[in-house]
């Protein structure tokens, strides 16, 4: 009863009070500006501190979204600082903002490549949008001029220009033609048509932020004597607001642009789907679900060396199927031994190659060795296979090839300003025995490489200013990499793989 009585008193007090705006209840944020000396140090990240306690008020901007056929209110922006906000809209609904829902599900069989592209292209675009936003690796640029044009009645497109000095200083090394954009224009006056004072008071503050979500489609490098840079063209995929302010189309209007790069595996996946028309016969057969041409090998299973685990009956069947078919799909839930099966397949193929002469068509390929390329979806998956093979007594001679990102963790290039996320540092860290014994960018610095002395000298000179690097040192690095690739007949610079 006492609780109910106090609640009634509070309600009466609110009713008796005059309607007040909410701006007085919002906390006043202060932003610390850097001095001129601090600004000389270029950094990629700016620390923003905000302390919140129970009962504190956050300024948000609302929008609407459709749920079960009805428009319901949803948070669009969260204002953390006067000049920093978080777009909850594209974080919560990346597919809606940067793509569109696919109209057809995947199938087991496809009539032709046109049908395959029509079904799989939207699915890949949905996944690209979701994974890019989930990566949380966006780049926010303030006061960037954006040129908008209205192509159709409800369609917008535009372009932005990034000077080459910005791209170099800020280390914008992503593919700018494969990015998502969240374009915001803050500080716009809110024109209310509500006549009732009590209803209009709920719209506070009296300004809002205009938001548009776009997708980049083309990059044109412009080289001028005064201002080199890249012109990035994009189209607007999602407009949360029906009304477009006039200032959007005015000349030299500055916006806040958040660049969300697509992940490299997703870019390659989309390119693979689009280029299926020019793929080989076996690739088309696999993708379309048609009959796969079989090349009879009649492989004989050899005795496994010590260190490799024994297989159960289902695993042996999977290995037999893989050894005697052109293409085999082996799938199963976690913990069923797919990695062990992969290790056995690698070993059997290695033994088969060592006992049989390589077939070649081009006479220049006569001296090339047969190699086995083992690729995986992550660095960890390939490292596990490498550890198994290193533990075996008579293991194949292998070479671990990492991506350039992992190589930069061990040997950053001169004047490198790229900062890696914690996820990258955690996921791309392998065991020391793999990195030092079979890794390409470590082996090329060992004494077996005749150019290792040049490379090590180059590493020492990295500590000097970038302008002091000699041409001979740079040439030595390229020669050393060529030695390692010649030893294994093949090199991969953008993949995580094992060569045998």
UniProtKB/TrEMBL annotation:
InterPro entries with a match to the protein in the record: Coronavir_polyprotein_1ab (IPR050534), DNA2/NAM7_AAA_11 (IPR041677), P-loop_NTPase (IPR027417)
Molecular functions (GO terms): 5'-3' DNA helicase activity
Domain annotation DNA2/NAM7 helicase helicase: ranges: 310-464
Official protein name in the record: DNA2/NAM7 helicase helicase domain-containing protein
SUPFAM superfamilies named in the record: P-loop containing nucleoside triphosphate hydrolases (SSF52540)
Top-level taxon in the UniProt lineage: Eukaryota
């Amino acid at each position: 009863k006492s609780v109910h009585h106090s609640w009634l008193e509070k309600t009466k007090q609110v009713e008796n009070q005059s309607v007040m705006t909410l701006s007085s209840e919002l906390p006043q944020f202060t932003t610390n500006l850097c001095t001129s000396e601090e600004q000389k140090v270029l950094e990629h990240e700016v620390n923003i501190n905000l302390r919140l306690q129970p009962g504190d008020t956050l300024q948000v901007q609302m929008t609407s979204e459709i749920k079960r056929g009805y428009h319901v209110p949803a948070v669009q922006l969260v204002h953390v600082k006067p000049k920093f906000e978080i777009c909850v809209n594209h974080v919560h609904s990346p597919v809606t903002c940067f793509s569109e829902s696919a109209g057809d599900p995947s199938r087991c069989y496809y009539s032709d490549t046109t049908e395959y592209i029509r079904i799989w292209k939207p699915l890949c675009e949905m996944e690209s949008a979701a994974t890019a936003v989930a990566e949380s690796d966006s780049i926010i640029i303030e006061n960037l001029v954006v040129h908008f044009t209205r192509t159709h009645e409800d369609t917008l497109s535009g372009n932005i220009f990034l000077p080459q000095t910005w791209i170099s200083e800020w280390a914008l090394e992503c593919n700018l033609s494969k990015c998502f954009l969240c374009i915001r224009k803050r500080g716009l006056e809110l024109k209310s048509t509500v006549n009732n004072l009590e209803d209009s008071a709920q719209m506070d503050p009296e300004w809002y932020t205009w938001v548009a979500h776009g997708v980049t489609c083309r990059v044109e490098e412009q080289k001028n004597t005064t201002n080199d840079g890249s012109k990035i063209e994009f189209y607007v995929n999602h407009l949360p607001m029906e009304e477009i302010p006039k200032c959007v189309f005015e000349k030299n209007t500055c916006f806040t642009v958040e660049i969300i790069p697509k992940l490299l595996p997703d870019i390659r996946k989309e390119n693979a789907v689009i280029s299926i028309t020019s793929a080989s016969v076996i690739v088309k057969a696999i993708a379309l679900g048609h009959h796969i041409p079989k090349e009879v090998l009649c492989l004989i299973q050899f005795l496994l060396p010590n260190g490799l685990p024994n297989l159960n009956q289902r695993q042996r069947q999977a290995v037999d199927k893989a050894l005697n078919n052109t293409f085999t799909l082996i799938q199963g839930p976690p913990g069923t031994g797919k990695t062990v099966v992969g290790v056995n397949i690698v070993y059997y193929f290695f033994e088969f190659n060592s006992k049989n002469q390589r077939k070649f068509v081009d006479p220049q390929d006569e001296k090339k060795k047969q190699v086995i390329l083992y690729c995986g979806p992550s660095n960890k998956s390939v490292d596990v296979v490498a550890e198994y093979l290193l533990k075996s007594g008579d293991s194949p001679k292998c070479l671990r090839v990492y991506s350039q990102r992992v190589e930069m963790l061990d040997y950053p290039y001169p004047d490198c300003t790229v900062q890696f996320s914690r996820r990258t540092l955690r996921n791309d860290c392998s065991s020391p025995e793999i990195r030092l014994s079979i890794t390409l960018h470590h082996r090329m610095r060992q004494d077996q490489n005749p150019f290792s002395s040049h490379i090590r000298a180059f590493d020492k000179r990295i500590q000097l200013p970038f302008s002091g690097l000699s041409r001979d040192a740079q040439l030595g690095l390229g020669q050393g990499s060529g030695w390692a690739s010649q030893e294994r007949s093949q090199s991969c610079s953008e993949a995580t793989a094992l060569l045998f």
